[in-house]
Amino acid sequence: ITATIAGLGGWRLQQRPIRTDGGAVSGGSRSTLQIPPLAEATVDADGTRVFELTAQVGSTQFLYDTQTTTWGYNGAFGGPTLRAREGESVRVEVTNELNEVTTAHWHGMKLPAKADGGPHQPIHPGETWTAEWTVEQPAATLWYHPHNHGTTEVHVYRGLSGLFFIDDEATGTDRDPLPHDYGVDDIPVVVSDRAFLPDGSFDETHRSAAGMLGDTILVNGTVNPTFEATRAETRLRILNASTARTYRVQLDGGSLLLVGTDAGLVPEPKRVDAITLTPGERVEVIVQLEPGETKMLRSLPHTLGLLGTTERASGTRDPLDLLELSRPATSTGEPVFETLLASAGGTLAAVIPPLDEPDERRTVTMQDAKINHRRMNMSRIDEVVTVGARERWFITNEHFLAHNLHIHNARFRIVSIGGSKPAIELQGWKDTVYAPPSRTVVIDVEFGTATDPHLPYMFHCHMLQHEDQGMMAQFVVVNPGEAAGPIISPVTQD
Ligand code: C2O
Ligand code: CU
């Protein structure tokens, strides 16, 4: 990771000219927030829910006078929202119409290693890869994106990513106290940033030590977006899909009611002022608006990890607008969520106590482009996890830059950060966690139950330039007493 952060000094985010596709409202300067379509699925005779995704090249108009070449699943940019239920069998057929190898990884999903879609499951141009698994986790907002070793950052940057909602028996039906009408009061908010060249193409050269930092914010692919709420309460499922940038999300003029974190709903909703989201992290919040009210969801300047200099860390000295939310004066209806929740018993998800006595303790240290002093090696198994083991991981970022850590096929709860209790927004189920320089993050990890001694899962920094540079390691899940390896994968065989 070569530091070129000096080049970021004084670099400011700009408001860009916006698309004029007829969707503009609010003084003509904003566009209606695009909502990714729900993926169509067929259900097999045996009940398996089948999705088809095609990674393809397209053209998207982000700026008013130019087209941008973009990549997307089943469209020009981004991807449809997949949705499945706990206990359901799922099959996704992913076709690669790009001219290079890609993969499709289901971030946050517990599943067999051969379905994980990491670097050991390449999809060659023109080929279709099939992933099959049974959903064995409760309601959560997960996502999917490419994970080819060495090219993950550019594949995601060019536009390949989408959401994957998991429902369970308590969610998505009439009995669910949470707003759950997709695109109406249950809204995907996929936040990312891009830099453009004068001809409208994505600038893939604007690199910092963190990775590519763009000067234009996209939400679901929309520049300067606005969303018109038709109800008193709107649930926002916010994903930081940026390859490098961290956001500190706040509602200007209001608080956020936290209802979910990366890997599940929280036990009890709590009001929070601002939420830090490093790349790959998600949060679910409820926002309340009075009739006639407009509020801005924005990102505050922050100093995370980068030498304490605000603009170097966040690329901005001023708050960044993410999404304008407004409710027409004529809209009727009162907030109902907290009343519905109270009558449903007051909790959204099971409480998760820290482990009394973990079965296994593991140490993860992070250095410049390395984990535990080693760069990623596709042929090396770094850790061996026994199925069902309750593990405590001690993660220490020994580098001076900000990093984070994501673990595949797992969810975890944070026990402590630098010896202190985690903030409210870090107390629920997680699969990705910010790793501040020089501090230790302690987590209790719960892995999926599929075993395969020959095929690894990944854990890595989710700042994708760092991941591509080798800040990634591999683990297998084995049965008790089973030996791990050698790795048998199409990638390490040739
Ligand atoms: Cu979202 Cu291993 O990645
Ligand atoms: Cu990193």
Automatic annotation (TrEMBL):
Q: Which InterPro entries match?
A: Cu-oxidase-like_N, Cu-oxidase_2nd, Cu-oxidase_C, Cu-oxidase_fam, Cu_oxidase_Cu_BS, Cupredoxin
Q: Which residues form a coiled coil?
A: none
Which GO-annotated molecular functions does the record name? copper ion binding; oxidoreductase activity
In terms of Pfam families, this protein maps to:
Cu-oxidase, Cu-oxidase_2, Cu-oxidase_3
Query: Could you tell me the keywords of this UniProt record?
Result: Membrane, Metal-binding, Oxidoreductase, Transmembrane, Transmembrane helix
What protein family does this chain belong to? Belongs to the multicopper oxidase family.
Report the protein name in the record. Answer: Multicopper oxidase domain-containing protein
In which organism is this protein found? Leucobacter denitrificans
